[in-house]
Design a protein that fits this description.
The structure is a homodimer of 150-residue chains. The first copy, chain A, has helices at residues 2-14, 21-32, 40-50, 56-68, 110-122, 139-143; strands at 38-39, 72-75, 83-86, 93-98, 104-108, 126-137. With 150 residues, chain A is of the alpha+beta class. Chain A binds a DNA duplex (25 and 25 nucleotides) through residues 13, 16-23, 40-41, 53-58, 60-62, 80-82. Chains A, B: It comes from Halonatronomonas betaini.
Chain lengths: 150, 150
DNA sequence: TTGGCTGCAAATGGTTTGCACTAAT
DNA sequence: ATTAGTGCAAACCATTTGCAGCCAA
């Protein structure tokens, strides 16, 4: 855990950015919630629990900075606001998103890597990153009456 | 071409919506540019060529309507504004997006369907739709010096 | 005829920015 | 000490909404 923070500290310093207390607080929240995807507002509220004086603009500015340093990346959900999460080593996970309860199931898949390789060759495309999202109804919502089964 | 317009007319009428001249103009532009993805602004400008008096709010309101009727759907590019395109029968195409020149290559793939089926079973997920986007550098940008090869 | 549609302009709300102050190095 | 970073509030800008007039059915 602390290793990660140290790693990010290094990344900041080596790019001539300072490790301010706000940045430390934001990163700590992200590290302690590796499996969550935060909206800016969510992250803001979480950081305020640790540092009530933090400003919303600081969250915005630092998420932008962290993304440029590949510490975080933006997720593109079908939402009106942006979501962010830490970039992790085993970062080839994707999302199954329930259209009823908004639950997000993450998955990894080997086959996707092969698929991507084939695609890259076929279209002579130098693949950098991909976003894959599946929308549908999760187990619980299929079985309840709330999931609209037309 | 005209078949499509008639089809959309039916869909509108049967849902108690009128085929106004503005709606006809918007649909015509979309039909005549099936392979383009429009930002709202782009579509607005295109429709204005035919009907200079059309209002921007009308474009917004009708794209929302068309999406609810499954005539169009929203694309989620890494952009600050939403993009739309017509829903088509053979609609399992996805996007390779060049990070240098912003070119968008569309592709279809059989394997993706199989992959999706396996995933649905594995996670007991009732799949409705998916968004798959690959980011990287296209052929031309790999070979020019403009694509940054770090 | 008449209720849905439209154009206009004002409002909304997530995000960005200017500025004076603060703090990490 | 110096300059990057911060909090605040105002600005920004894509999108939404209220309303009076208009037109497809």
């Amino acid at each position: 855990m602390q290793n990660l923070l140290a790693e990010y500290h290094d990344k900041l310093s080596s790019n001539n950015y300072k490790l301010t207390s706000q940045r430390k607080d934001i990163l700590t929240v992200l590290i302690n919630n590796k499996d969550r995807h935060f909206s800016v507002e969510d992250l803001y509220n979480e950081v305020k629990k640790v540092n009530p004086d933090v400003g919303l603009a600081t969250i915005y500015r630092n998420l932008e900075l962290f993304c440029s340093l590949n510490i975080t990346h933006m997720l593109e959900f079908e939402s009106d606001y942006k979501h962010y999460e830490l970039v992790s080593e085993d970062d080839h996970h994707h999302h199954l998103i329930c259209m009823n309860c908004d639950k997000i199931i993450e998955f990894n898949d080997e086959d996707l890597v092969k698929f991507e390789e084939r695609l890259a060759e076929e279209y002579d495309f130098d693949m950098v990153k991909h976003y894959i999202k599946f929308y549908g109804y999760c187990n619980s919502c299929q079985n309840s009456n709330e999931g609209e089964m037309e």
